[in-house]
Structure of tRNA 2-selenouridine synthase:
Amino acid sequence: MIRQDANDYLRLFLQDIPLMDVRAPVEFNKGAFPNSQNIPILDDQQREAVGTCYKQDGQDAAIALGLQLVTAEIREQRLEQWKRFVNAHPEGFLYCFRGGLRSRTTQAWLKEQGIDYPLIKGGYKAMRTYLLQQMEVSSEQIPLVILSGFTGSGKTHVLKKTSHHVDLEALANHRGSAFGSDVNDFQPTQINWENQLSIDCLKHRHHYPQSGLLLEDESKRIGRNILPDCIHQKMEQAPYIFLERELEQRVAIIREDYFTSSWPLYQHQFQDAADEKFSSFMLGGLARIKKRLGGVLYQNINASFTLALEHLFATGKTELFDAGIRLLLQKYYDPMYLYQLKNKQRELLFRGAESEILAWADDHLKTMT
């Protein structure tokens, strides 16, 4: 049975339908969708040339130029790539920017090969608009609860053990602090970050319509990714639960997450340059908050971390970082957190240790509407 072109965007995103994106790489790299694969009909240079021709000489001339640029050899390569995608994803769809010329040309070429493959009506623009609209709807309809706690409390670890949550830091690939980037300093584009967040909220709304959603307490910016205004404003007003953890436990969690676990990744990635790269990352992160720390505190923590880094490179052990971590927590992060918490004046629903937080979340989040 021949499948029809579609604009059922809800089903596409709820079911993670595979999508073949035939836009140019520059468009795809700026923003796309989680289950999309870029197999362009025109490369970046060809797209630019056709676009210029369209503006200067009109659509017919642009179509003629596009056909001229896509030689028989290039066309054959494109077809082979498209056919592999179709064979791998018979349930999928294709799209271009607006579901127009490029999508229909791709369809026509596949049709000549005996393949009927549907496109997304409205293309990328319509799907992107849909996700932005659904983000607003999610912010209005989903009851949010914020998981709060001092830095190093292990909020992310606890969050992942709950049934109804979205891990904002995982979506942004950043821990949300001056030391939060990973070994490759990779984060999604702002558009991709927003698309994935909207999809996750959409899935929660439809799969768990009676349930609240737990989010970790975050600032508006997580690394280079910025929370959409509607979500951030809802988070600022949402009630919170507070995860309690002793100071020395928090020191140990930070040492494990930021030093013990990260150092082997740097060794694997940079090999002989690992010492230099890891030192640059850690001391560079400290330097980014130098003004807020103040000169004396910054110098003390910098000296402590420098000594700890030398010990790490010589022995492979991370325990000497504890002194600097403790200073950061007691003199910087904890006072800053208390100040922010006081200013927000949100409703406190519950506070407790990890096991108590998990029990509360399982009991309360599932029926909040």
In short: The mean pLDDT is 92.
